[in-house]
């Protein structure tokens, strides 16, 4: 027990890649949730700037998910005793990698074709006159 590293947890199982895999898995899960929230905001707003932020966060979340996927593959190839919970997390990360890729492709489809989203060429929002002609006084009940 004297020469064992500090990070060793008895009964934890796995191998040398397990701690890195679990760290990147948790990070990929959090970034994926944030990406989906920003994607929902894009659906609500449906503007070019919200499309750009949804696409950027989807790309970052997918990149971290790919890192977790690579560590899961490395953990499997190293071998050793892995419990059933760890194998389920590995399988979920592998499934999540491909569903995250599908989400990334669908978000980025709006960047290249405006029939799938607002596109970057639609920048005419906010161009119109905020106060219509003929009404010098704003409508009653509005706060300024």
Strand content: under 5%
Structural class: mainly alpha
Q: Could you give the order of the helices and strands?
A: HHH
- Give the end-to-end Cα distance, rounded to a whole number of Å: 70 Å
By DSSP (H or I, 4+ residues per run), the number of helices equals 3
The largest sheet, given as strand count, sense and whether it forms a barrel, is: none
Shape: elongated
Number-wise, the strands total 0
Kindly provide the radius of gyration, computed on alpha-carbon positions and rounded to a whole number of angstroms.
24 Å
Helix content: 55-70%
Poorly predicted runs are: none
Report the average pLDDT across residues: 81
Short overview:
The chain crosses the membrane at residues 20-39, 51-71, 91-112. Helices cover 61% and strands 0% of the residues. It is an all-alpha fold.
Mind explaining what this structure looks like?
- The chain is mainly α.
- It has a domain of 95 residues.
- Helix content is 61%, strand content 0%.
- It has three helices and no strands.
- 21% of the residues are buried.
Q: What features would you highlight for this structure?
A:
single chain; 144 residues; mainly alpha; 3 helices
């Amino acid at each position: 027990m004297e020469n064992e590293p500090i990070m060793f947890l008895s009964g934890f199982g796995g191998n040398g890649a397990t701690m890195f895999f679990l760290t990147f898995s948790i990070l990929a899960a959090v970034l994926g949730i944030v990406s989906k929230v920003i994607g929902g905001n894009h659906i609500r707003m449906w503007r070019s700037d919200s499309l750009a932020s949804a696409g950027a966060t989807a790309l970052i979340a997918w990149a971290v998910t790919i890192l977790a996927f690579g560590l899961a593959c490395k953990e499997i190839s190293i071998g050793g005793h892995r419990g059933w919970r760890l194998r389920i997390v590995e399988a979920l990360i592998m499934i999540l990698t491909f569903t995250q890729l599908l989400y990334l492709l669908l978000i980025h489809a709006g960047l290249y074709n405006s029939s799938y989203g607002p596109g970057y060429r639609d920048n005419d929002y906010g161009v119109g006159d905020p106060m219509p002609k003929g009404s010098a006084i704003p409508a009653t009940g509005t706060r300024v």
